[in-house]
Specification:
By secondary structure, this protein is an alpha/beta fold. About 40% of the residues lie in helices and about 20% in strands. A 6-stranded mixed beta sheet has the order 5-6-7-3-8-9, sandwiched between helices. A 6-stranded mixed beta sheet has the order 14-15-16-12-17-18, sandwiched between helices. It has a 3-stranded antiparallel beta sheet with strand order 2-1-4, with no helix packed on it. The longest helix is centred in the middle third of the chain and has 36 residues, at about 210-245.
């Protein structure tokens, strides 16, 4: 349906693509990944015809229709949300007639999709909504129109968790082809069957979803590293012979032959290791009391709209709690009440002993000093840390090399957000409240944030739409629905398991009323503390057993590595030639790659493997 052939694109001396090719067929589901600045959005622009390649061709099949959702700033006029959702890109049809009436079938479909995207007032002018909601309306328009190839650039950026899940399910049954740019690993894993990576001005393709891509890319890197080391050893052997015998007449011919052999070699480049690693100890905040924050009989309303009535809540030291619930349930209000951004109207809000609260939201960007450099601003914290520590963390958040000397004033909104987050992590409070912390972060930065928070020995409360981030960080869940809350003392999957046992639709769960949640004095509170300690002990024992198994398996490396590497190379070749399902090959390759990661004799790799236990 779409053919990209030998395309090159540059901006001045900056080459984004060089002689790249890509074929998209009907029914394909592709994920486009690559570092910031690698050219993902530019590739979309070329496909859409908004930009021209320096050389090469891009051909779209005749009569095939494209649909495109940009990251932000989609246009809006005086139309209502419903009218915007029913607008069509089809030249041959106009859903809005001169009379202003909308085709009935399109209207019914639009209303269903708008409801799924959490709209309630379809007749309100779209321009009265915020930018994020306008993007939702444009997304609805595309889904109603059903183009043959749908290009989505970070479609989850403006959605909450429940809407992301809805969109994910909707796109799973989408009839057209999908080409997605997304930093949401879980979203990609659920939707794509091929990953297109932009890396070093080239396109690399991998069969499977994002997890399959990680496995295959690591296998390729491992093979390239082994080939590089073998070639370097051979060059060293040849050069040693030349240096030792090159001046001797009896060996001169042999030495010359070895010089020619070195000259003829097609040099193998050492692979870049772009995996994320935080190479410093995360600064730790002062220890707080056991009870970090307490709400007692809290009432909160916006005018005549009551959000909370009789809310009781207590958060303990060390909890990592994610707030989940449908749009409009009160998550943002609760987060702001916890952070102290909203004042309590009725009731008591009390911080615990020695609690230092920090709140990360979009308005934190406004607290940055625009006259400073990135490095100077990041270093300006109450408890100063060394420059190397600062630069290491800034690098994890994509400020590398001379970027750290840029003035803050020239940074984009996303860069300022990343800087504010890095600065917060360099001097963290012991109660950290975060609102959508992964927005504007690419996958490398999200993994860096997860790694940093894994070292964070304090209390975290957050809202996020990124399922991978939630699963990696949260150890407890607060489900918010219609001003009522229910606490789940486990991660997100535990929450799903418990709610599924009550109702197949977690959004329909009837929560325990917050007025009944008298945490401090109730036996349930003490029992939960006992249960938590038991789970922690079981988890420690589990980690110990896994670590012992890893150590035992490490001793077998000498007899296993060669055989595994040969099998790995065969499987990678088979995956690249596969036309049908690759699930079995991917699973076998994952097993081999995992075992190699444990067996390889490097200490660093063993440590990293045990960190994931």
């Amino acid at each position: 349906m779409l053919t990209i052939s030998r395309v090159t694109k540059s901006f001045g001396a900056d080459v984004l693509f060089e002689d790249v090719a890509l074929q998209i067929n009907r029914g394909d589901r592709l994920g486009l990944v690559g570092a910031n600045g690698s050219g993902k959005s530019t590739l979309f622009s070329l496909i859409l015809g908004r930009d021209e390649p320096d050389s090469g061709t891009i051909q779209l099949q005749k009569n095939a229709r494209l649909g495109y959702l940009p990251q932000e700033n989609a246009p809006v006029g005086d139309e209502t949300v419903l009218q915007l959702a029913t607008l069509s890109d089809r030249a041959e049809s106009s859903p809005v007639a001169d009379s202003g009436e909308i085709d009935f079938e399109r209207e019914a479909k639009a209303k269903k999709i708008l409801a799924g995207l959490a709209f309630r007032d379809f007749d309100r002018p779209a321009r009265e909504f915020s930018g994020g909601w306008i993007m939702r309306a444009h997304l609805a328009r595309l889904l109603v129109d059903e183009p043959d190839l749908l290009l989505l650039d970070e479609p989850t950026n403006h959605l909450d968790l429940e809407t992301v899940v809805w969109l994910q399910k909707y796109l799973q049954s989408y009839s057209g082809s999908l080409f997605l740019i997304s930093h949401d690993r879980a979203f990609l894993n659920s939707l794509v069957t091929r990953i297109v990576e932009l890396n070093h001005q080239q396109i690399f393709q991998y069969n499977g979803n994002y997890e399959d891509f990680i496995i295959q890319k690591e296998a390729r890197r491992s093979q390239q590293l082994a080939a590089y080391k073998n070639q370097q050893r051979r060059i060293e052997q040849l050069q040693t012979f030349i240096d030792r015998f090159g001046a001797k007449n009896t060996k001169a011919a042999q030495a010359q032959s070895k010089r020619k052999e070195i000259a003829r070699m097609e040099r193998i480049e050492a692979p870049e290791d772009d995996s994320v690693s935080i190479h410093f100890r995360f600064p730790q905040p002062a220890r707080s009391g056991a009870r970090v924050i307490t709400f007692e009989n809290i009432h909160h309303a916006y005018g005549q709209t009551r959000v909370y009535q009789g809310l009781n809540l207590e958060i303990e030291r060390g909890q990592r709690t994610v707030l989940v619930g449908p749009n409009g349930a009160g998550k943002s209000t609760l987060l702001k009440l916890i952070a102290g951004v909203l004042s309590v109207q009725t009731g008591r809000r009390e911080l615990g002993y020695n609690v230092e609260l920090g709140y990360f939201s979009q308005h934190r960007v406004e607290m940055l000093n625009l006259e400073r450099t990135v490095l100077a601003e990041a270093s300006d914290v109450k408890r100063p840390v060394g420059e190397q520590t600062v630069r290491s963390l800034l690098g994890a958040f994509l400020f590398t090399g001379d970027d750290v000397f840029k003035p803050v004033s020239v940074l984009s909104g996303g860069e300022k957000s990343r800087l504010a987050l890095a600065k917060l992590l360099l001097d963290p409070p012991n109660l950290l409240v975060m609102d959508e912390p992964t927005t504007h972060l690419d996958m490398r930065s999200i993994e860096a944030l997860i790694a940093a928070l894994s070292q964070y020995a304090a209390t975290l409360v957050f809202v996020s739409h990124d399922l991978h981030f939630i699963r990696s960080v949260a150890t407890s869940v607060l489900h918010v629905r219609k001003g009522e809350i229910r606490f789940y003392p486990g991660g997100y999957d535990y929450f799903l398991e418990k709610t599924a046992s009550t109702d197949a639709d977690a959004g329909a769960l009837e929560p325990v009323k917050s007025s009944e949640m008298n945490f401090p004095a109730s036996p349930t509170w003490r029992q939960r503390d006992i249960d938590r300690k038991r789970r922690e002990a079981e988890e420690r024992q589990k980690r110990y057993r896994i670590e012992q198994r890893l150590r035992a398996r490490l001793k077998e490396t000498e007899t296993r590595i060669l055989d595994l590497e040969q099998k790995q190379e065969q499987l990678v070749a088979a995956l690249q030639e596969a036309n049908g399902s690759t699930a079995g090959l991917s699973l076998e390759l994952k097993q081999i790659t995992d075992e190699l990661g444990v067996l390889m004799p490097e200490w660093e790799q063993l440590v990293e493997s045990m960190k994931t236990v």
